[in-house]
Amino acid sequence: MKLGGDNAIHHLCWLFSLLSITGAQAQVGINYGRVANNLPSPSTAVSLIKSLGIDRVKIFDADSQVLAALANTSIKVSIMVRNQDIPGIASNASHADSWVAQNVVHHYPATHIATILVGNEILSDTSIKSSTWPALVPAMENIFASLQARNLTAKIKVSTPLASDALSTSYPPSAGAFHSEIATSVIQPLLAFLAKTGSSYHANVYPYFAYAGNSGQISLEYALFGSGSTVVQDGSLGYRDLLDAMVDSTFAAMERLGYGDIPLVISETGWPSAGDSGQVGASVDNAQLYNARLAKKVASSQGTPKRPGVSIPTYIFALFNENEKSGAGTERNFGIFYPSGSRVYDLNLSGKS
Fold this sequence. Notes:
Blueprint lengths: L4 H13 L10 E5 L9 H10 L4 E4 L4 H6 L6 E6 L4 H6 L1 H13 L7 E6 L17 H14 L7 E3 L1 E3 L3 E3 L7 E2 L1 H18 L3 E4 L2 H7 L6 H4 L8 E3 L2 E3 L2 H15 L7 E6 L14 H17 L13 E4 L36
Parallel strand pairs: 1-2, 1-13, 2-3, 3-4, 4-5, 6-9, 9-12, 12-13
Antiparallel strand pairs: 7-8, 10-11
Helix pairs in contact: 1-2, 5-6, 6-7
């Protein structure tokens, strides 16, 4: 059969959907970024998401075409307030209400919006330190109040994803601490909000970058869940993989501020399949290993040494390679799929292999 364009991609999706994908399905999601000029239509992207057998997706805005494509699919969707919109939403409750009306009410419940993420890694951008950092929690409060007025807070949570650089110390994991500059001014009010509203802390956690920046001290096996024994002993807790150590350092940092019981979502993690010359560890084999072993780990619900037996919902980055992302070559090669719809590598998200 000769197929072209979106028809070929839909046919591939049908073939992939024949695979049995269970176990990790309920906890593994995908990041659907669109910083590219060659991506397929949102409806085709949704078909690819379905082919992975997962039931949750995160997007980096609240694009109406994407949300329409996700309607009537039962896929849980995390949408995002753009960084530049945070100050206005924080300063004026009517702006928050308009945002919710346009981006949530217009699509819900046909599109299963489950989480509103306010901003993306805003504490990593020092250029908005004065304008946006202090506005983060007030903006979240105004979004929450708008949801509350519509009796939606039991079904839609509000949070914000933060990068690992929010921590000043992460080794050993028990020493985890937030930067003093943000600990009491931003993080403590954020954690209080999450605790009050029953929401989760969303952490973007990339063992790849920790390994690539310190490959002389961190082994590839430790970063790829391949260590057969304890690599880092931290008091009574032993660590066999870098992801656990990074997550537990975040738990320790939250504990230090008096909020040790807040659940955590890994809102981004992944491994690049290619990069520039000299970028260590970026390969198809390593990307496949990382994400397959990650799915197996999530399916086991084993938690971390600090929080054993606690399931951690985890979103893989990313659905596509994105050719317009800036920075090193690895930034454009985190996708499971090429924009054509073919897979960069085969990936079993069942957690069974």
